[in-house]
Specification:
The protein is an alpha+beta fold and 174 residues long. Helices cover 37% and strands 22% of the residues. It contains four helices and five strands, in the order H-E-E-E-H-E-E-H-H. It is elongated, with a radius of gyration of 21 Å.
Amino acid sequence: MPEDARDLAVPPIPTAPPLTLREAVVAELEKGGLDPVLPEHSAWVTAGLVAGDAEVHLAIDSCDEREMVWAFGHLRGRVPADRRAAVAELLTHINYGTVGTSFDLDFSDGAVRIRGMLDGITPAEGRRIDRLVASIARGVERWYAAIMAVAFGDSDPAAACERELLVAASAGNR
């Protein structure tokens, strides 16, 4: 008989690390409380994301051979045709001071997206995927009000950007 009850304890079974980047994406989204969807016949992983007042459709693709992950956050709604040039100007101001992610506007349908990419990533580096998704969420949360003010109001793009930068600075953010 063992002298100590600890001798009888069964060690925990370690969980296997993800074998592919797609598996790592799914694991990180689940850890973050998101519900990943894996569409049939597609390498993409999608999920809904709420960032402040914005609902974002997240779409993530990966390639193990190239060690790359691409993430796109699609904002709901479309910019009216007569405001697309103003929103494009705003996104240019925003992207000038942004590192790691960038916004873009599809002039054909008015869709606004934020995108980011990871290069040289392996499935064992899931934490980097989590940080990429968090960067997309922070970018949308920070700039959503300014984008909406320009897209659906009459705000000047430069003034809307400046207002947001002042709000961020007063809150101690950059």
